[in-house]
Write a structure and sequence with these properties.
This protein is mainly alpha-helical and about 300 residues long. The protein is built from 13 helices and 4 strands. Helix 9 crosses helix 10.
Length: about 300
């Protein structure tokens, strides 16, 4: 006998039902008046205040009362909600933000910011230079230690696998893979002979490859550090306004976040001006060219920084 198990579908969460349940529980609570005095007593909570606070907090979380009411802004219900929010928080968006219970989500494309600062060009030039050094060191070592037989075999493999580069033909790539692995093994053997001989060419290749890899790591670390600094700058700007809202910096998604556009623009402007660059620990220097120019004058290129780490 075969037993078939039938899974009971899990109902989708109903946020409206959850909200009704939560507000019902809140309405049934009592508050203590005159605690510690002869007139101490309990009475029902001020549900009108609770309802106004909840609605205002929701408006703050979604990015403003008009965002909240965008589904049908001209309805009589919307008009009452608008009055509730404006009566509770006023017309100032900054005051409304005080009711927010969720983090402010700020979209920032760090790569785009670095491009504007000239840092992308600086990095690409530097990593190309380091890659050229690695290639030159590799060629010098190869020429010094390759045997005639190894050179001939590598040329044969190269000729046999020329059409593999950039191909989408998985079968062709699979057939060619053993040849490419053989060529790699020959190159590794050549390098190992130079290392065993304690040849300075081997040390030069290692140093060049290490510097190139370090520059790439620094680029990733710089972006991560700047993202944190950007969030901290925005958080400080909000604190200066008397707001203790948490800030969440996210990658651009293409979707509308529904935040306060004028305020967000102001926060972005503040962060771009004041968030310290990880290379210097100071705000971007635009006094004479781009921030990248300032880094170059200070000797803080990716080449010099990578070489300093590699030493």
């Amino acid at each position: 006998m075969t037993t078939t198990l039938i899974e009971t579908p899990v109902p989708e969460p109903d946020p409206i039902a959850d909200a009704i349940a939560a507000l019902t529980a809140a309405a049934r609570r009592e508050r203590t008046i005159g605690a510690g005095t002869p007139n101490e007593h309990t009475e029902p909570v001020d549900f009108g205040e609770i309802a106004c606070h909840v609605i205002t907090a929701v408006a703050a979380n979604v990015g403003g009362v008009e965002v909240l009411l965008s589904g049908r802004p001209g309805s009589w219900e919307a008009d009452y909600v608008r009055q509730i929010v404006q009566s509770t928080a006023g017309d100032d968006d900054t005051e409304l933000m005080r009711y927010r219970t969720e983090p402010v989500r700020i979209e920032v494309d760090v790569e785009d910011v670095f491009y504007d600062f000239g840092l992308t060009d600086l990095y690409e030039r530097d990593v190309d230079e380091l890659a050229s050094r690695s290639a030159a060191a590799d060629d010098a070592l190869f020429e010094a230690y390759v045997t005639a037989e190894e050179r001939a075999r590598i040329e044969e493999i190269r000729a046999a696998t020329t059409n593999v580069i950039g191909t989408d033909d998985e079968a062709l790539f699979k057939r060619s893979k053993p040849l490419m692995e053989e060529a790699q093994a020959i190159v590794e053997a050549i390098t190992q002979r130079a290392v065993a001989a304690d040849d300075p060419l081997a040390a030069a290749l290692t140093a060049a490859e290490t510097a190139e890899e370090t520059a790439r790591e620094l680029w990733e670390q710089d972006q991560a550090a700047y993202r944190d600094a950007y969030a901290a700058a925005i958080r400080q700007a909000l604190t200066d306004r008397g707001l203790t809202v948490e800030v969440e910096v996210v990658e651009p998604s293409g979707a509308e976040l529904g935040e306060w556009d004028p305020l967000v623009d102001e926060l972005h402007e503040h962060a771009r001006k004041n968030a310290p660059l990880p290379m210097t620990g100071a705000a971007p220097d635009w006094t004479s060219g781009t921030p990248a120019d300032a880094l170059h004058r200070a000797g803080l290129t990716y080449v010099t920084r990578a070489e300093a780490v590699a030493r």
